[in-house]
Q: What sequence folds into this?
């Protein structure tokens, strides 16, 4: 869906998305009441947004610290080669690491930026030494640790 044009959204679609981003467990009746529709047209709109890929899924957001994952690291990785084969090999490896919460192919000095979530500095060292630096082609790793979140959003700015 990367190169597809954006889906046209009207004001009601935007309100539905905004409500669902804030409260994914809202019932259809609650949604309908908040956007001023009856339940049937409201449900049709939500189903259309799901079918068109605007709503990609529903999740429960878990507080990482509540389950012992208090260390958030931002890791920049440079590969020794940037061929398609090496990029695909690296990407396949990091997809398999549950500690990697996000991974982006970047421009600039680093080839990739990762957000890694672990329970301790020791767990991060294990991840770094026994997983990330074992991936073939990793030439350089630079890490910054988050002291605390200032802004963390899951809701997109839909306007």
A:
């Amino acid at each position: 869906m990367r190169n597809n044009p954006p889906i046209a959204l009207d004001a009601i679609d935007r309100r539905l998305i905004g409500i669902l981003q804030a409260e994914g467990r809202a019932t259809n009746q609650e949604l309908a009441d908040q956007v001023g529709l009856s339940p049937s047209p409201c449900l049709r709109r939500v189903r259309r947004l799901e079918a068109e890929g605007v709503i990609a899924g529903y999740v429960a957001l878990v507080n990482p610290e509540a389950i012992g994952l208090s260390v958030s690291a931002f890791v920049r990785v440079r590969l020794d080669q940037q061929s398609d084969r090496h990029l695909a090999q690296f990407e396949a490896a990091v997809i398999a690491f549950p500690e990697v919460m996000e991974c982006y192919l970047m421009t600039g000095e680093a080839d990739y930026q990762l957000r890694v979530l672990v329970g301790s500095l020791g767990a991060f060292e294990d991840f770094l030494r026994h997983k990330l630096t074992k991936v073939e082609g990793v030439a350089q790793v630079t890490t910054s640790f988050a002291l605390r979140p200032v802004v963390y959003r899951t809701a997109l700015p839909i306007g």
Remarks:
- The CA atoms of residues 14 and 119 lie 37 Å apart.
- Helices lie at 11-22, 28-35, 39-51, 84-95, 121-130.
